Amino acid sequence: MIAALTQRVLCTSAALACIATIASADCFEDLTGDGNVGGADLGTLLAAWGECADPDNCPEDLTGDGNVGGADLGTLLAAWGECPDEFCPPDALDEGEPCGESLTGGCNMDTPMFGPKLQCGDSVCGTAWAELQDPGDPDSGMRDTDWYPFTINDEQSEVTWSVEAEFEAVASIVGGDCDDPEVILSDVGEQAGGTTCLPPGDYWLFIAPASFEGLPCDGESNRYVATLEMCEPDPDGEGLCESPGCDVCPADATDEGEPCGEDHNGGCNSDDNLFSSISCGETICGTSWAKNNTRDMDWFLFEVTEAGAYTAKLKSQFPGHVILAEVDLSDPDSPACTAVSEIAYSDDECSVGIATAELEPGTYAVFVSMGQENGVGIFDGYPCDSGENEYSVTLFCE
Q: Which of 138, 239, 276, 354 is packed most tightly, with the most Cβ within 10 A?
């Protein structure tokens, strides 16, 4: 019985003074579930007075001692009144935008305005809405979008953006500027978010309903709480971020098995449709090249058996691209590959590119090749004797 009551502080005394040590993490004193601790709850408790017939199913035993008695009565009386709203942490920032208004719409506004600037460890509570502007026009939907700025000052950092909402939400990290915003990471769900590695710079954290209708402000499902977490680069080189100046290939990496200049795993870009493979947690050390208007393209297959977030991390001696792609092998002579992540970029100064996507069960691949930060491929200037050909790519599975 005690193990099932981890949210409560156990009192062994019947004295009412003991109630001061009881924590009400989830308003468990509200026995009737109406959002208030009052007369109905008192009646429920008194009706169960005495030893619990079934200690594993005795909600009136608020102290977890196997009996409904004076200590439980004191606990209930101490919580008398309306249950506290525990959706939003007490130390969280307030969005500062009443539901239905547009004060933090960021780059979606003619004159951009943003929510409070977030620091590492900050949480923010807000609301969002989505409604048809013309009930007769299914294409007239509009939604609230909330943008929160944050800055990485000195060195690349591993950034986690997490959102818990009462509605299906889009949670994104956005770079660039309002004229050319770049979605770096995006996720959808009542619990949404993700982790990526970002270089120094200014960014936005974005929240919006996933739909453009069906979420009016007079409903009961408009709230969200979102948290920003940032940590320094991992000095051991085991996380998404690694210290500048580190070696590209760790000693325990798997060799790609393709000598520079040859093509053994060109995947959907080759006539032979040859793929290499990669497993969750595996790091592969390989080479790439670009010469005479041609570039090497490497494809590494992996199977997804459980839906979740999957991330490919690329570190390279050259400007590189890494992408997650879905692979259709129903026709082995002509596999179809469709990108399911944004293009991530790794420059030639030992920074990393992070490609992340929420994947359903199926067959996928990690794609690696040379490319520019703007997403355009590089097809010349890096022959195999350039000394700038090595890379490592790691697959993370949540």
A: 354
| Pair type for strands 157-177 and 67-68 | unpaired
Measured CA to CA, the distance from residue 136 to residue 139 in angstroms comes to: 9
Domain holding 296: CATH number?
A: 2.60.120.380
Q: Which residues contact 137 (CB under 8 A, 6 or more apart)?
A: none
Residue 116 DSSP class: P
Backbone angles phi, psi at 16, to 5 degrees: -65, -20
* 172 & 274 share domain: no
- Which residue, of 58, 82, 106, is where some domain finishes? 82
Indicate if 27 and 110 belong to the same structural domain. Answer: no
Q: What is the Cα–Cα distance from 207 to 186, expressed in whole angstroms?
A: 10
Q: Which two tokens stand for residue 110?
A: 């003619």
User: How many C-beta atoms lie closer than 10 Å to residue 119's C-beta?
Assistant: 11
Which amino acid makes up residue 240? L
Is 334 buried (19+), middle (13-18) or exposed (0-12) by CB count in 10 A?
A: exposed
Number of neighbouring beta carbons within 10 Å of residue 264: 14
Domain-embedded: residue 346: yes
Q: Whole domain around residue 305: which residue ranges?
A: 254-397
pTM, two decimal places? 0.54
Alpha helices, H only, the chain = 39-47, 70-78
Structure tokens at 19: 């109630």
CA atoms within 13 A on the CB side of 64: 14
Distance CA 118, CA 125 (A): 12
Backbone angles phi, psi at 75, to 5 degrees: -60, -45
Q: Are 190 and 167 in contact (CB under 8 A)?
A: yes
| pLDDT tens-place values along the chain, 398 residues long | 222 222 333 333 332 233 222 333 468 899 998 889 999 999 999 999 999 999 889 999 999 999 999 999 999 999 999 887 678 888 899 999 999 998 999 999 999 999 999 998 999 999 999 999 999 999 999 999 999 999 998 777 889 999 999 999 999 999 989 998 888 888 889 999 888 888 889 999 999 999 999 999 987 899 999 999 986 665 555 566 664 455 788 888 999 999 999 989 999 888 778 999 999 999 999 999 999 899 999 999 999 999 988 999 999 989 999 999 999 988 877 888 999 988 888 876 666 888 989 999 999 999 999 999 888 999 998 999 888 899 999 999 97
